[in-house]
Amino acid sequence: MDLTVYDRRAWRIRLTLAVGLVFSGIVWYLADFHNLGLGEGRVSWLVPAAMLVAMLVIGVYANGLIHELRHHAVELGEQHALLRRLAQHDPMTGLLNRASFIAALEERVKQSEEGMPVALFLLDLDRFKVMNDVFGHAFGDAVLERVGEVLRRDIGDGLCGRLGGDEFAFMLSGPVSRSTCEAAGRRVLQALAAPTSILGRTTQIEGSIGVAWSPQHTMDRMDIVACADLALYLAKEEGRGRVACFDGELLKEERYRRSIERELRGALLMNELEMYYQPIHSADGARVTALEALVRWRHPVRGVISPAEFIAVAERSSLIEKLGTWVFTRVCEDMADWDDIKVSINVSPAQLKGRDFANHVRDILASTGRDPRRIAIEITENILMDNSAEQIADLNALRALGMSVWLDDFGTGHSGLSYLREFPIDVIKIDKGLVQDMRDSADNRVFVSTIAQLGSGLDRRVVAEGIETQDDLVLARAAGCSHVQGYYFSRPLEARNVPAYLATANKCSAAA
Ligand code: C2E
Ligand code: CA
Ligand code: CA
After folding, report:
1. Is the whole model's pTM more than 0.85, yes or no?
2. 41: pLDDT strictly greater than 60
3. Which ligand 1 atom is at minimum distance from the Cα of 294?
């Protein structure tokens, strides 16, 4: 706000007052001493005296008024500045809010055309939701404030923003290259990861960063956000705590993913998916104790697409919930014709994160009339690592119905042995890679037998996956696995071939 106008007015009043005073003085002097016919005796000086007093009063009043107005103007200016700041900044972190950050980014992207490149960094905190769930919202807020502090300190005001939730962004102008961006991103991650006390708890904040820059990658403010977002996804996929830069290949992969996603949506509607079932045997090979349900997509042009490929695509969109529902329902329907055999269904972390998973499963069981005790769900370790109260509650609710929970691909992730004790796990499935590695070294055999012993010590069944040969079977038995599964026994079977397989296997075991 321009305050000089008030100061100028105050000075003008003071000047007018001074001129008026001098003028009244002159009039008084002339009227009194030179008797200019303005009146006789006492009356003659009353007029200028009254003028003088009136001038004084008006002048002082006007001066005060101007000062008051000036004061209001100052207050108004401060309020305006505060409102502007509130409208542009995120109140919790003091960083620019989404709209202001994007506006500032737009400016920089425009400037990049004139030879001042700009790099956009998207930062996403790892496992923020877990921190919130475990330590409470006040702790979560304090973590966000701390991120704001670090970004303001290391990057500078006006260059960093909070885009929402635990998503942050910052931009750096100047010469950009993959190495400079990676280094800048890593510096920020290191600053965040430095141990600090938050609400009395020593904490290290971890995050992942995706970077894209203009003009090289794009000259559009929204495209640059999309490019950095793809890179961020890659950073997380590569194992969190990383900085990933955008490149053209990512865009190609994204286009491929999108086309698969579109077609998968259609495939679900057109019933192009099929369920296959792979038998799981007792370690002596005799009995079939369960079947693992595995989904297949018979694409009219591309042929059979592996679930390893399309499940990952579905997980990135809401499609995974639809796919999961389709799988669960189809399995429950297929099971109608098979005596008492148990079937395990793979459930991806994204499905469990969906709302109300347990209730949803309960509804499917009710509508198909299946006994929950005949169904197991296979989950992977990362569900347990996320340690979300809701997901654990869902798992417990399913167990309370009578379903069992199996831990799949054990040995590929962190293999936290503590999970086995703490979480409601009934069966451990040792990853096929680990099982097959037993062929090569004694160390791997020790590793598998340690898991198997631990499992049996905790009264859990242990399945060795990926048994392809007689030798694999011998090694799995020697390691102490109670169950086995793999091509040696059978490849996944079409539903219509399951009864015949079960009948033959059971006949063999009865004869044995
Ligand atoms: P997974 O759960 O670890 O399933 C085992 C995979 O190993 C299956 O591959 C199976 O066909 C394959 N396999 C079985 N025995 C052998 C063997 O002796 N040697 C070798 N080399 N491989 C063997 P598939 O069917 O391609 O499934 C791949 C992954 O896709 C599965 O890994 C699972 O994570 C996921 N998946 C499959 N069906 C579903 C589903 O219905 N829902 C969800 N969420 N994920 C699924
Ligand atoms: Ca599995
Ligand atoms: Ca597995």
Report:
1. no
2. no
3. 38
